[in-house]
């Protein structure tokens, strides 16, 4: 009887240590090898996630001091300013990026968002339209065009834009946002 109990205890201890090992492994994997930048920006930001905003900005500024036309560094710095709600600084950086690479839908869309956040709707609309001209599948830009129509009191145009997005088979997240906007505009619960 004693031998069976000892074997059971050993098995329980074995599984306990395996569980602890797996938890440590997941903790290590979740804290290493990740880079910052705006969610989904994919800009390959060379800064660690735990750094404060000022340190991250300093990294990009040093890159730009050596290579002032680095589109990746401009986008990274602009995204940091955007995330920090430093909209005027972000606008200046993205305007500079747009001069260097006028074919970037990312830059045009982010400029549109910045102008939308600062309530400069004509410039926002122009940048979203430019992003769509560069990349006709950039449905986020189309969504923001719909929002501008809604804000400007043109609900019919906004609904037409939102329906155009739905017809283009958007991502599940964008589909949900569009459905909510349409329901809200029609006075229905989303």
UniProtKB/TrEMBL annotation:
The keyword Transmembrane applies. TPR repeats lie at residues 71-104, 105-138, 139-172. The chain crosses the membrane at residues 12-29. Keywords: Membrane, Repeat, TPR repeat, Transmembrane, Transmembrane helix. PROSITE patterns: TPR, TPR_REGION. InterPro entries: TPR-like_helical_dom_sf, TPR_rpt, Ycf3/AcsC/BcsC/TPR_MFPF. It comes from the Bacteria. It holds the Pfam family TPR_19. This is Tetratricopeptide repeat protein. It comes from Desulfolithobacter dissulfuricans.
């Amino acid at each position: 009887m004693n031998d069976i109990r000892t074997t059971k205890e050993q098995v329980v201890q074995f599984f306990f240590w395996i569980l602890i090992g797996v938890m440590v492994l997941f903790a290590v994997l979740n804290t290493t090898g990740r880079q910052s930048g705006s969610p989904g920006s994919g800009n390959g930001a060379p800064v660690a996630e735990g750094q404060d905003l000022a340190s991250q900005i300093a990294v990009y500024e040093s890159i730009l001091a050596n290579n002032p036309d680095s589109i990746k560094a401009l986008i990274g710095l602009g995204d940091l300013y955007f995330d920090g709600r430093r909209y005027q600084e972000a606008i200046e950086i993205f305007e500079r990026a747009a001069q260097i690479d006028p074919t970037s839908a990312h830059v045009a869309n982010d400029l549109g968002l910045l102008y939308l956040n600062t309530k400069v709707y004509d410039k926002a609309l122009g940048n979203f339209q430019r992003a769509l001209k560069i990349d006709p599948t950039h449905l986020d830009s189309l969504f923001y065009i719909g929002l501008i129509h809604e804000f400007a009191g043109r609900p019919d145009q906004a609904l037409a834009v939102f329906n155009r997005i739905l017809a283009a088979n958007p991502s599940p997240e964008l589909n949900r946002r569009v459905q909510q906007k349409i329901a809200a505009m029609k006075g229905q619960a989303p």
